[in-house]
Every structure is written in C-alpha cells, then in structure tokens.
Amino acid sequence: MSQLVDIYQEIFTLLKQKEEIFEKIKNAEGSLIEKWQRFLTVMLPMQMAILRRYDYPCNQKGLADFQKQVSASIETDANLKKVHEEMWLYLLGKTFGVTKLEELSLDKVRTIIKDLTSALTDPSLLEKMETVTREMKGKSVDEQKNRFFDVLFPIQVEVIERHGLQGEEGFIQVQRAIVEYLFDPEVLEEVKKTEEAIQEKTRISNR
Questions:
Q1: Helix (H), strand (E) at residue 64
Q2: Whole-number Å distance between alpha carbons of 131 and 16
Q3: Which pLDDT belongs to residue 146?
Q4: Are 82 and 167 part of one and the same domain?
Q5: Domain that holds residue 169
Q6: Residue 204, Ramachandran bin (φ over 0: left; ψ between -120 and 50: alpha; else beta)
C-alpha cells in the first residue's frame, strides 16, 4: 500500500472524530459560503497535522505538494482512489448533505475558475460591492459578511451552472475541486486574483 494511501487513511480517521462539528456546521444558520469557510477551518489544519508526520511542510505549500502527488497517482492507484472518494463522500454528506462526488478534471476546473474570476472581478460587481460596504458601515462583521455573500453567491452559482453543475450542490463540488487543485499555478492565480479584488472592496475573503 502506498504512502499516499496511508496518509489519506490517517486523515480520514482523524476527520471522522469531528463528525459532531461537521453536523453542527450543516445545521447552523448562515450562507453556504460561510459554511464552506467554517468547514475548511476544521479540515485543512487537520490535514496539515497528519502531513507534518510525513515530513511535509506544515503550510499551504506542504498541502499543495501532497495534493499534486495525489492528483498524479489517483487514476492508477485503486486504493488511493477508493479512500479519497470515501473521505470526500463522508465529509460532504455530513456537512452539506451531498451524496455523490463529481469527478472534475483539472482542465475543467481551470475553465470554471477563469469564468468565476471574470464574473467576480467585473467592474460593475465590484462597484456594487463597494456600495454595499458603505451601506453596511457600522454593522457587525457577521452581518457584513452575510450581506456580501448574498450578493456573491448567486453569481457564482450562475457561472457554475453554465458548466453543468446545479445549485448549491454544484457550488460545493466546485469548491472541493478547487481546494484539491490549488497546487496548479493557473488555478491558484485565478483564486488569488478574485480574492484580492473582493478584499479591496470589502475586506473579506471569498474562499
């Protein structure tokens, strides 16, 4: 059995211990974007904790190096593919009620993320976000975030649906794929471009 399989099994075992947290995220109030962000704050540090045991750097680069190795091996390693799918089906089911895993190629994710970047950095949208920022001045951080997410989410869903992935589930499938392909320079560049544009207008992160 490959080391990648061992790592994935350890990550999966650790994440299953947090089942109650994932179910709380699922049942909590708030937008889907906000729930996805909460999910990442639980999952990513736990992944990094396991990767550190295998001498990966305990940072975004270490996670990206691991994901790159997984991407290169998953189609030829049946055990890796199996534990990868089992882990994600468990996580997406417990946290978002998603019961299937869409296989999204790197090329498709590159296309989707470029379209998302184009939509989310459109000057008219950024102007609207700036207006919303002024209108929400003095409100709590949570209120501001929820208002921004209310504006951003329908635009993201509209773009994603053009690629054959529907509604909230399509949004989750794409976000999951983006996380796994952040080792790719093109995907990472588009994510950074979008985040920088939105943060400039709102001081929040869209991921």
A1: helix 60-73
A2: 42
A3: 82
A4: no
A5: 106-202
A6: beta
Distance CA(204)–CA(198), nearest Å, equals 7
In our burial notation (b when 16+ CB lie closer than 10 A, e otherwise), range 154-185 reads: eebbebbeeeebeeebbbbbbbbbbbbbbbbe
Other C-beta atoms closer than 10 Å to the C-beta of 186 total: 14
Indicate the residue among 36, 62, 96 that finishes a domain: 96
Q: How confident is the model at residue 207 (pLDDT cuts 50, 70, 90)?
A: very low
How many angstroms separate the CA atoms of 25 and 37, rounded?
A: 10
Dump pLDDT digits (tens) for 112-166.
Answer: 999 999 999 999 998 888 888 888 888 887 788 888 888 899 999 999 999 999 9
Residues 32 and 92 in one domain: yes
Q: For residue 50, which phi and psi values (nearest 5 degrees)?
A: -70, -40
Judge whether 79 lies within some domain.
yes
In this structure, are 77 and 28 located in the same domain? yes
> Has residue 207 been placed in a domain?
no
Res 126: pLDDT: 86
**In a shared domain, residues 39 and 88:** yes
Q: What letter would DSSP give residue 14? A: H
Amino acid at 93: G
Q: How far apart are CA 190 and CA 135, in angstroms?
A: 28
Report how many domains make up the chain: 2
pTM of the model: 0.90
